[in-house]
Amino acid sequence: MLNETFGSLEIVELRPPPALIKVAIIEDLRPIREGLAMLIGGTDGYICTGSYRSMEEALEKIKHDVPDVVLSDIGLPGMDGIQGMRILKERYPEMTILVLSVYDDDERIFDALCAGACGYLLKKTPPARLMESLKEAATGGAPMSPEVARRVITLFREFRPPARADYELTPHETRILKLLVEGHSYKTAATELGVTVNTISFHLKRIYEKLQVHSKSEAVAKALHNRLI
Question: What is the pTM of this model?
Fold first, then answer.
């Protein structure tokens, strides 16, 4: 059954990126794994701390150099990526996990986000966008491929909403929440409203407090489920 909220996501606000973003890869297909390692290692501001062909290998070795971001597939030999992500988040709560998968079905998307992934990208994501997404994830964002974001929004709109709830959001907060529902990132929402990203982050903290949520995806889920926009 689909979950109605992303309870394990832990995105609260944007933070400055580390001087060098450390990324680990969990991918069973060797050409993809090696290609990702070359892309990440060859890009200024990033370093690949490890590339693992299975979740078991990652769980054993990742402790030797814990990364800022784990870029993980879901369909892995042995332990699947979703189960492994739950274990990684238990062991390393501050670790950011970003899914990179060919799967775009509803169940896997929701299960991955609920397991602790901050975002979900499809493997057809262009290299430049992939690197941008890694930075976004490292700074507290929730990058998603457009197709994934649309599926998430569509699924929540299909839920039968209860009577409209009042969380005392201001008109400006409601506008920001509407932009999130439409799939905007912190950066594009700031551009849309003509304000800084820090301003968006400040208002989102207030929105999260009022909605009693802890992430962008939880806020979107609650906004749709409670007909806040």
Answer: 0.63
